[in-house]
Amino acid sequence: METKELKGSWWLPGNPDRRFYGTLNFDNTSGCYLEIVGSLSTEDIVEIILGYSTSGDEVTLYNSIRTQSTWSFPGTSTEKYISNILFLGTHFKQKEDITFKEIRISCTLLGEWLQESGFIIKRDNQEKKIFIEYTSMEPHVFTFNDYSISFYQSPDIKYNIATKAPKITDKYFIKFIYSEEKSYNIILENINSMMNFLSLATREEISETSLEGITDTVSKVASGGIIYKPTIKIIYKSTRKTDMPEQINTNQMLFGYQEIKTNFTDIYSNWLHIIDKLTTLYSLYFGTSYNPRMYIENVFLNYVIALETYHRQVFKNEEISIDEHNVRIREIVTNTPHEYSSWLESKLQYSNEPTLRKRLQKLFQINNSILKYTTTTKNKFINNVVNTRNYLVHRDAYLEKKALRDGELIYLNSKLKSLVEMCLLRELGFNYNQIKSICDKPFVYMQLEI
What CA–CA distance (Å, rounded) separates 26 from 5? Predict the structure, then answer.
């Protein structure tokens, strides 16, 4: 989104008669910056700022921070604010009013993931004609507990009067429709969940390119007395990258929409379960995979922790039964000198849990027929992970030469990432054959091959 500018008057909800002239600049990359002539507030943090642009746009700035205040004599004072969120098209007078019933999102690579187009092109070489037919795809609607999600397209039609050349492009959207008004914070969580789902599917960081909402609490009257609900544009600074490859194909993705459309509801419900129940796995995967500035040692440790935590939550976390282990501990502590018994008991607290080596062996075991690793390559991989983790955490001089570094560590990280993705696919509900089909894709297989 290009930087846009709005000039107009600005005021606080509790004092509409005290207005100041100013200029607002905004885009999805930099955020929203307001500079006004005068002194708007005595506070450095302002919850709501309202405005009217010179072109008649209603503007609401939410959660603004004053970054600069100047006074000159003679002259006048000026202030600068940076705002988290801009709502263009209405005035919300308090944060409790910021709710929506419907949200429409466009995002990067959505068309590539959906793999549906409204164009049919036919050539008649004899007549030297080309026939282009366009039909919008039917919306794909999926219902969940208190909202529905739909994927649809809308043509963007432009016509060059000089050359008489039409230009029609597909624009793809995701729509959330809620059973009742939802607060903006909840809606942001829903959007973030969907963007991360698409990021996992495409193996690219997906970002919103536009966001619009409709609320039942705001109505306007058009000419002729017609009452309608305005579309409210929502702009905020995105932390996601906006530079995307021009196109990717499904062989570069883990999965496209066409591969899951028959059971999308189940898969996305499982995705929400992962976010809720396997939070560490989820957070570490996305916090690591799309953070290019992270040190490779941190990337490695994060993926290892993600796998270790996943095993702890999903598989058996005891080597023997708890009762058997308690008996074993009692016998050991009883036969230990009294002055050392408390110390030893605390040391043995986690002694019944599988080691990292055993956790990795289990993850390889459930995926062995998919990965097709030999015993030798599997053991080498596990040894490299365990030795490198232990060295980075404990700085054991004995392991220094066994720990991987530089290019070897980057290579190992790509394998760990793929193993984390296989765990996520398993929890999404992909069966053995589906995961095997994904891993057989050339681009994905290269990431898995040791």
Answer: 7
pLDDT of residue 148: 97
Tokens in use for 328?
Answer: 């074993």
Domain range summary for the chain, segments of one domain joined by +? 4-94, 99-250, 278-317+354-448
d(CA 416, CA 309): 14
Whole-number Å distance between alpha carbons of 103 and 111? 18
Enumerate the H helices of 146-278 as residue ranges. Answer: 184-202, 257-260, 264-277
CA angle 8, 12, 18 (to 5 degrees): 70
Around 119, how many Cα atoms within 13 Å sit in the side-chain half-sphere?
15
Query: Using an 8 Å Cβ cutoff, are 195 and 239 in contact?
Result: no
Written as six digits, the tokens of 229 are: 């609900």
Q: How far apart are CA 22 and CA 35, in angstroms?
A: 5
What whole-number distance in Å separates Cα of residue 379 and Cα of residue 373?
9
Question: What pLDDT sits at residue 247?
Answer: 67
36 burial level (CB within 10 Å; 0-12, 13-18, 19+): buried
HSE of 253, CA atoms in CB hemisphere, 13 A = 25
Distance from first CA to last CA of the chain, Å, rounded?
41
pLDDT along the chain (450 residues), means of 10: 85 93 86 91 93 94 92 81 93 94 94 84 78 80 95 81 74 95 93 96 91 92 85 86 67 90 96 95 94 93 96 89 85 85 83 90 83 80 94 91 93 92 94 86 62
pLDDT single digits (tens) 147-166: 999 999 887 777 777 776 77
The C-alpha R_g of the chain, in whole angstroms, comes to 28
Show the tokens assigned to 36: 């006004």
The pair of structure tokens assigned to 154 is: 């809308």
What pLDDT shows up at residue 249? 72
pLDDT at site 26: 87
DSSP-derived 3-state class of residue 425? helix
What are the structure tokens assigned to 370, written together?
């998919």
| Residue 278 in tokens | 């396997």
Of 443, 428, 442, residue with least CA distance to 197 = 428
